[in-house]
């Protein structure tokens, strides 16, 4: 079946469902169409579970469309059902409401600000990274729970009284929650501005421009641009971000379509170009797509002013577009390959860092969700044993290995951890112990991320 025929079939199927029924297409007599009709007929008339499947027609068609768009050659072409389509749209929108900060919860149950989003209510009010919020109005964090307090904030339309601790001193301020762009954060360390971009969404370009302009007005000429774990987003947002830093009229990226035609995309003149002496880009294996476009544009446009730090990026060098259907579902499919300004592709290769720095083991080790009935006992092999022992080692407990074999010495270390956190000191890791360990690790890593993260520390050194 040709791609063109498949596309017509998808559209026809969706339109039929919009009318509340499905009629297998009879427009062709190809072997593929006959097979499709035969399978559909079997499943609707002879299949044992046909009468036991809710919305059978819709279920079959959703499965058929999903199958057509699940392609080994192109993992970035996808069909989204109604729920997935909404989630995907929200991820690209980038907007949120509230005070405008990312956070973690400390051991006292209070909210600790990790980063502040540029131009948010929290930013305007002067809240900073490291501030510890203890209460909002009469909502005490330690009693209500941090997540409940954040939900409470989002529902408020008037100013709220925020009680917080800064440098061990109690402070109070009144802030009115508002909508904000949740893709760009800004803070200053010495004479360096740290700008984080978590995704390339609708307002990322303007938010980034505001962040760089603020740094410039503060007399800062060096920035650390953190693109770690940024999986991409809108290419136009990448163009806008690059337009703030690279010389006007520079090529940001090229697009090569299926016929080999090349289209060059240059900087957007509507964005103010701001010169910086040093730009240090933080990247990792989850830096992808639009993030990689920006890295390519900065490297080509600014040369030695740009230094990348971290690990090799993901290597997603293709471009997708999205089509939405009347029933709320949508499809994302590949339309072109993008190239850097020099005409080179990084697809399946990624950008190697100029300065290779590995992350902390504790932040890069993987684990699977632990079931309530699961346990880990000494002298056995478990997938999560590697994370378990790595975490214990990071917290200062005496483990003798950090692989998937859970040793006797590590079990003894776990006993000490359990005793320290008022758990049954069995040396066996159950769900309660695992959840407590994850909570403690989260608190420790976030509390020390700007002093212990080797990638971040190196980037700041290079930016000085």
Structure description:
The chain is α+β, with helices and mostly antiparallel strands and 464 residues long. The strands form 5 sheets. Strands 3, 4, 5, 6, 7 and 8 form a 6-stranded antiparallel beta sheet that branches. The protein is globular and about 75 Å long. It starts with a helix and ends with a helix. The protein has helices at residues 3-18, 31-45, 56-68, 82-93, 121-125, 141-144, 146-154, 204-217, 235-245, 290-302, 361-364, 385-394, 408-420, 431-452, 454-463; strands at 78-80, 95-98, 101-105, 111-116, 132-136, 139-140, 160-166, 169-175, 178-181, 184-189, 192-197, 222-226, 251-256, 262-266, 278-283, 306-310, 318-324, 330-339, 355-356, 380-381, 405-406.
The largest β sheet comes out as: 6 strands, antiparallel
Q: Structural class, please?
A: alpha+beta
Average residue-wise pLDDT: 92
Note the total helix count.
15
Low-confidence stretches: 1-28
**What percentage of amino acids are in beta strands?**
15-25%
The oligomeric state of the chains shown is single chain
Distance between the termini: 58 Å
Give the overall shape, derived from the CA principal axes. Answer: globular
Work out the helicity level.
Answer: 25-40%
How many whole angstroms does the radius of gyration measure?
Answer: 26 Å
Number of DSSP-assigned strands: 21
